[in-house]
Design brief:
The chain is mostly beta strands. It has helices at 9-32, 44-50, 220-224, 264-270; strands at residues 56-58, 62-65, 69-70, 79-87, 92-99, 110-117, 120-128, 136-140, 144-154, 157-166, 169-177, 179-183, 192-197, 202-209, 214-219, 228-232, 237-241, 249-254, 258-261, 292-302, 312-320, 332-339, 345-350, 356-361, 370-376, 385-393, 403-409, 416-417, 423-424, 429-437, 444-450, 462-469, 474-482. The strands form 8 sheets. Strands 1-19-18-17-16 form a 5-stranded antiparallel sheet. It has a 5-stranded antiparallel sheet with strand order 2-15-14-13-12. Strands 3-11-10-9-8 form a 5-stranded antiparallel sheet, with no helix packed on it. A hairpin with a 5-residue loop joins strand 28 (416-417) and strand 29 (423-424). The longest helix has 24 residues, at 9-32. The N and C termini lie far apart (137 Å).
Length: 485
C-alpha cells in the first residue's frame, strides 16, 4: 500500500506570506530608485546630437586703429639689380630689386621691393627668394583705393601689407598674417578681407573703416570652436570642421556678423533644373581626398574680355592634397578662376606648381589683355621657371560660354618650334620673364630668358628671346646674349 502524503495548510500560508513580503520589498526599493526618462537613455541619436554642428555662429569683432606708418625713402645708391618692374597706375610703379650690398639691415637670400610715387622711391617689403606675388590695387569700403603686397618669410609665414597714398606719400595702414583674399562676403556692395594661416587652416575676417580709420577683425576658429576653417571666394562660403576627420560644413556670412550654415536645400535651389540627375552628392568624401587651398590671390581691375572699364577679376590659387603636412606639392594644381564684369565666370588649370608672377599684356588683341604666368619650378633652387600665356574669351566670342585657351606652355624639355621655324627654348627657362612693347607692332611681346638646358652656350651665360604672336603662332623677333665672367 502506498503511503499518502499530507500537506499542512499552515506551512502553505506561511510560504505565501513570505513570498508576498519579498515582492512588496522589491517594489518599494524600485520606487526609491532615481527615475530615468526616455531622454536620459543613451543612444546613437543622442551621441550625434551632442556632437552636432551649430546652425549659426555669432562673431564679435574687435577694432584697431590704422597704423598709418609712412614708408621710408629709398636712396638710389642702395639699389642693385632690378628683378621685376610693373607700372600699377599713373601714380605708382612697383619694382623688385637686389641691393648693391648685403648687410645686417639687408641680409642675403631676400628679394626687396620699392614703389615709386611722383619720382620718389619708397622701400616697401622683402621676401625670401622670389616674392610670391607682386603689387595689386583694389578698392575697399566702396571708393577707397588700397595697394596690397606680400612678404614671404617662410613656407608657412606670409604677411599681407595694405597701404594707401596720402598727399603723394605711401602709408601702411595694416599688416595681416597670411595671404589675404578680397571679397564681398556679405554681398552688400562693399569688399571685405579674409585671411587664412597655418598648416591646419585658421581664418579671420577683417573690415576696413576709412571714416573711423580702423580695421576690425574676428577669428573664426577661436569664436566658433572649429579646428579647421577655410574661405572659398568662388562659392563665397566658409568651410568649418569641428572634429578631426569631420567633413567640413559650409557656412555663409550674413550682415549681422553671423555665420549661418548653408543648408542642402539652398545648394539644391541654386542648381539648374536640367542638371544631370546622375550626379551623386559627395557627402562621403573623406578629408584626405579634399584639396586644401595653400595660397590664393585676387587680381582686380583687369580687362580680359574687352568689355567694360577694367571690371574683370582673376583669382589664382594653389590646391594640394598634402594632408600629411610634409609640404610636398606632387599632388597639386594651380587654378586660375576668372570673373568678368558681366558676372560670367570661367576657370583654367595650369599644370605647374610653385610661386609665380602674374602679368597681363595685349598679346593676342589690342582690345583686351591676356594672362601671363611665370611659375617657379618646385624644389629647384636655380631659378628655373615655366611660362604660360592664357588667351581669355568672354561669352559669345568663340563659344556661347566663356573660355580660356592656353597658347603658350613651356613646361617641357624639348624646344617648341615657332611659326617661322625658329626654336622657343622650353627647358632651362629662368626667372625674369617680362612684357615688352614691340616697335611698329600693334601687340606686345614676351621676353624669355634661358640658361643651361635648351641653350647650347656656356651655362653661366644667359640668352634672351623676344617672342611675338603673329596670329598663326609665336615668332622670335630678337635674341640677345649676356656673358658672365
Amino acid at each position: 500500500m502506498k503511503k499518502k502524503k499530507t500537506v499542512n495548510c499552515r506551512s502553505i500560508t506561511a510560504l505565501m506570506f513570505f513570498f508576498l513580503l519579498l515582492m512588496c520589498t522589491a517594489c518599494a526599493e524600485k520606487q526609491n530608485e532615481p527615475k530615468t526618462t526616455v531622454d536620459d537613455i543613451p543612444s546613437e541619436q543622442g551621441t550625434q546630437n551632442a556632437s552636432s554642428t551649430p546652425d549659426t555662429i555669432q562673431l564679435n569683432f574687435s577694432a584697431q586703429d590704422f597704423s598709418n606708418i609712412p614708408l621710408s625713402i629709398l636712396d638710389d645708391s642702395q639699389i642693385g639689380n632690378i628683378v621685376n618692374s610693373k607700372k600699377i597706375d599713373d601714380m605708382v610703379t612697383y619694382v623688385e630689386y637686389l641691393p648693391k650690398e648685403f648687410n645686417e639691415e639687408n641680409p642675403e637670400g631676400y628679394t626687396y621691393s620699392y614703389i615709386e610715387v611722383s619720382g620718389i622711391k619708397y622701400a616697401l617689403s622683402r621676401s625670401l627668394g622670389e616674392t610670391w606675388y607682386d603689387l595689386t590695387k583694389t578698392t575697399l569700403a566702396e571708393t577707397n583705393t588700397v595697394y596690397i603686397t606680400n612678404e614671404l618669410h617662410g613656407a608657412s609665414y606670409v604677411v599681407t601689407i595694405f597701404f594707401v597714398i596720402k598727399e603723394k606719400t605711401p602709408h601702411i595702414i595694416s599688416e595681416i598674417d597670411g595671404f589675404a583674399q578680397i571679397s564681398d562676403i556679405d554681398e552688400n556692395g562693399t569688399k571685405e578681407v579674409v585671411s587664412t594661416v597655418g598648416t591646419v587652416p585658421d581664418t579671420s575676417i577683417y573690415f576696413f573703416d576709412f571714416d573711423k580709420q580702423t580695421v576690425s577683425t574676428a577669428n573664426i576658429n577661436e569664436q566658433s570652436g572649429a579646428e579647421y576653417s577655410m574661405y572659398d571666394a568662388t562659392t563665397n562660403t566658409f568651410s568649418l570642421a569641428f572634429e578631426p576627420n569631420q567633413n567640413p560644413i559650409a557656412y555663409v556670412y550674413e550682415t549681422n556678423e553671423q555665420l549661418r550654415e548653408k543648408k542642402k536645400k539652398d545648394e539644391e535651389n541654386s542648381k539648374s533644373e536640367d542638371m544631370n540627375q546622375n550626379n551623386i552628392e559627395n557627402s562621403d568624401e573623406p578629408l584626405w581626398a579634399q584639396p586644401i587651398e595653400e595660397h590664393g590671390q585676387l587680381f582686380t581691375g583687369l580687362n580680359l574680355d574687352g568689355i567694360g572699364d577694367h571690371d574683370d577679376e582673376a583669382y589664382v590659387s594653389l590646391y594640394d592634397w598634402d594632408h600629411n603636412g610634409y609640404g610636398r606639392y606632387d599632388a597639386s594644381e594651380l587654378v586660375v578662376r576668372i570673373r568678368f564684369g558681366t558676372g560670367d565666370t570661367t576657370a583654367h588649370i595650369v599644370h605647374a606648381v610653385g610661386s609665380y608672377q602674374f602679368y597681363t599684356a595685349k598679346l593676342f588683341s589690342e582690345k583686351k589683355d591676356a594672362i601671363v604666368l611665370e611659375v617657379n619650378t618646385q624644389y629647384a633652387n636655380s631659378g628655373l621657371v615655366s611660362v604660360f600665356a592664357l588667351d581669355v574669351y568672354g561669352t559669345g566670342e568663340v563659344d556661347p560660354f566663356p573660355s580660356v585657351v592656353e597658347r603658350l606652355n613651356m613646361t617641357g624639355e624639348a624646344p617648341i618650334l615657332s611659326a617661322d621655324g625658329e626654336k622657343l627654348y622650353a627647358g632651362g627657362l629662368i626667372q625674369g620673364t617680362t612684357i615688352t612693347d614691340i616697335e611698329n607692332k600693334p601687340l606686345q611681346g614676351i621676353v624669355l630668358h634661358s640658361s643651361g638646358v635648351g641653350y647650347s652656350g656656356p651655362i653661366g651665360d644667359r640668352e634672351s628671346q623676344t617672342i611675338y604672336w603673329n596670329g598663326d603662332g609665336w615668332i622670335v623677333l630678337e635674341r640677345s646674349e649676356t656673358k658672365h665672367n
